[in-house]
Amino acid sequence: MIEAQAPAPPGAPPSWRGPARLPVRPGTGRFLVLACVFVCAACGLVYELELVALASYLIGDSVTQASVVLSVMVFAMGIGSLAAKRLRRFAAAGFGALEAALALVGGCSAMALYAVFAWTGAWGGLWAGGPRVLLVAFSLAIGLLIGAEVPLLMELIQRVRHQDAGGAVADLFAADYVGALVGGLAFPFLLLPFLGQLTSSLLTGAVNVVAGAALVLGLFRRDLTCRARCLLLVANVIVLGVLASAAVLVDDFERASRQAVYGDDVRVAVQTGVQEIVLTGGADGRPPDLYLDGRLRFGGREERRYHEALVHPAMNGPHARVLILGGGDGLAAREALAHPGVRRVDVVDPDPGLVRLARTDPALSRLNGGVYRDPRVHVSAADAFQWLREASAATYDVVVADLPDPGITASTKLYSQEFYGLARRALAPGGRLVVHAGPVASRARVFWTVEATLRAAGLRTAPYRVDGRATGFTAGPDRTTDVARAPRDWGFVLAAAEARPPLRLDPHARPLHTLTQAALTADARAAEGTRVTGARASTLVHPRY
Question: Which residue spans traverse the membrane (predicted)?
């Protein structure tokens, strides 16, 4: 039975419902359409992952950012599919224009987001929430364009060789899903580590526009009017030129945006396999500041007060064997080695690049006292959770958790009941665990959730805080370097298995620069006054930060 052909709508090309006039055999043409589906699907997933990764890096809380990007994008894909029904009569020209727009929007999305973040003063001022709004806008636009691809591609593949609808859908979705798999694997294992977020998004846009132009202007060129071919050719050349120009200028853009974020004295900027490390200052008498993935890990003017408060209360007691989780900068190890009787310090940090910088950078090595030249210090590049799972029981007298703030999704497992249970097992009789738990004044519920989680793991706790008193120290997800908005204190929890540990300083340690017993006692009372009742323990399956 021969299917009756519907009449062409007014203004549509004469071949709208007829077979396409291809320069190749139908089998080859069908293969080329499916190959284009494969490439476009890979590019589309890379755009999605780029938005998720950059939003997590700029805003924090990767679970929320992934949920926002993916849900908005999937919603927009449905709207785009419906809207594309009106373009089916111009399937070839419509698909060509669609891919040019998608390549431009998707390819430039990462650069635009980072530019807004860098030059609008983070989240403050008139642009408060600007990157979040732009994130949703890009997710919506890219989702609309990706969703519109499917009806047009279905029309094109049917015009190459008509087949039953079920078979056409199966072929189209098979190519689409395999392409998504390739794009999803290429992003974390190839594009991101070798090209970075900005260059990889621009390259993806270039691949996208070339694939779309090759399919339409090559395979379906006879379906287009001369005017349509010229317009599409000009549009694709312009998009490719914009992406190529941005790729040429991306290094200058990164340097300028980095200066906008960190200031003019960026001295070291390196992307390791784990994170971006930026070191500012450290010359002309200025203390160094260390940023990890855009978050200020320590400010040189305040780091000693922070690290003395973190380490020294835990060292009052047996301390021959010390484990430092995190702390690849060597500053916590410096404080531990200030106590006589320390025989071994194990530093467990996932980023060997940070440890290498702490060894070799003159300013940072001078700040940490050259601890990595001390034979008592041993370094392991490992995940803290996995390290504790494999550690022998009753190994350490002191465990120092110098870790990123629990508000960062990647750190949540390191503030869980299961993690503290592993740390408790690693403690020798009479051993102590100390945890950096974020600022007390501005995030009291997070702080007391950490304390409740330690108690749930069978530890007796002594919470305390230390006044920051200075400019710019911001640990964890609060990225700002604006003094007015920076947290004004740091919260810690000292814990032990047998009994509540006393908050006392080791009288045998070298004299401290900033911390006194009177201040420590007073600040512990101040922290107790902020207690949040009803805080519940955080677990791996039910994180509460």
Answer: 31-59, 65-84, 96-121, 133-153, 174-195, 201-220, 232-250
Could you tell me the maximum CA-CA distance found in the chain, to the nearest angstrom? 97
Tell me if 349 is assigned to a ligand binding site: yes
CATH number, domain containing residue 365: 3.40.50.150
Q: Is 478 annotated as a binding residue?
A: no
pTM for the whole thing?
Answer: 0.81
Determine the Cα–Cα distance for residues 179 and 41; give it in Å rounded to an integer. 5
- Taking a C-beta distance cutoff of 8 angstroms, is the pair 451, 493 a contact? yes
- The pLDDT tens digits of the residues spanning 432-489 come to 999 999 889 888 999 999 999 999 999 999 999 998 654 444 443 333 444 444 567 8
Query: Coil, helix or strand for 148?
Result: helix
Q: Catalytic pick from 293, 397, 402, 506?
A: 402
Binding residue per annotation — 275?
A: yes
Burial (CB < 10 A; 0-12, 13-18, 19+), residue 196, is middle
Which structural domain range is residue 67 located in? 26-261
Separation of alpha carbons 111 and 122, rounded Å: 15
Is 39 within the bounds of a domain?
yes
Query: For position 155, which CATH number holds?
Result: 1.20.1250
Number of structural domains (the chain) is 2
Clarify whether 402 is annotated catalytic.
yes
Query: Number of helices and strands (H, E) in the chain?
Result: 15, 11
Q: Which amino acid appears at position 391 of this protein?
A: A
Domain assignment of residue 286, yes or no = no
Neighbour count for residue 234 (Cβ, 10 Å) = 11
Residues 304 and 249 in one domain: no
Is 176 annotated in some ligand binding site?
no
Q: Based on the fold, state whether residues 316 and 242 are members of the same structural domain.
A: no
Residues 105-147 pLDDT 10s = 999 999 998 888 888 754 433 334 556 788 899 999 999 999 9
Distance in angstroms (rounded) separating the CA atoms of residues 413 and 326: 14
Q: Are strands 344-348 and 321-326 parallel, antiparallel or unpaired?
A: parallel
Task: Look at residue 5 and tell me if it is in a domain.
Answer: no
